[in-house]
Amino acid sequence: MFGVVPRKIWGRMLPVDDENFIPMSCTLYVVEADGKRYLIDTGLGDCLNSMEEKIYSASNESSFDAEFERLGISADDIDVVLLTHLHTDHSGGAMQRSGDAYVPRFKNATYYVQRRELEDALAPDERSEAAYSHERTKALADSGQLQLLDGDTEIATGVFAVVTGGHTAAHQGFEFISEGKKVVNYCDVVPTSSHIKLPYGASVDLYPLQTLAFKKTHILPLVDSDVVMALAHDHDKTLVRFRSDGRKIIADSVLAPTTA
Q1: What's the whole-model pTM score?
Q2: Rounded to the nearest 5 degrees, what angle is found at the Cα of 41, between the Cα atoms of 47 and 197?
Q3: What is the C-alpha separation between 23 and 21, in angstroms, rounded?
Q4: Domains located in the chain, CATH noted
Q5: Looking at the DSSP assignment, which residues form a beta bridge with residue 173?
């Protein structure tokens, strides 16, 4: 998860087991904006194959129904699903099994993803193919519920898709702006609070220099601001603000949202 940074350094920040695993979460966010309910990413879901289970070493399946119930909603109440990219840990829950087929889990929702991301997911290279599920992605593409984006887009009033690149060629983040306040989710460009540091980028980033450039232009300016960042994979922190103490950047928790 930390690319060129040696374990001897990043291991001081996080617990690590004998197999070099660190604890991580797939945190999903429900946002109410412009009269609609938005879900950012869908996690691993509940239909992983045996190879995917080995890759992700998930301790449990996503618990959509129980967590939605805690929010007083159901999957049918989701109007929009915003997919940062189509890696299984972010899009696996977009679909569910119906007999021998895959169908959209959120039957009333429009799904959004970048066109380039869909193209890459359906025809991945050898380095990327294990991160995608061709069968589930093809089913989503054929569902009639997928809306493709071409670059930065204002999806609705105050709801913006921002192409970050870096992690994948068309990885995107989302920004929500309302009444002078701003919440951002740049997903795997800053997957945990530790990744605010410029050299700290995941080794699975296909374009690490793009990740670095995006951090400089979009992430560092958030330090000492009121902007809230939603983290996708941090095991302990979810919504944070970043501040500097003069020596290092610190992530202060805002609140702990319900996760699925």
Answers
A1: 0.90
A2: 120
A3: 7
A4: 7-255 (3.60.15.10)
A5: 162
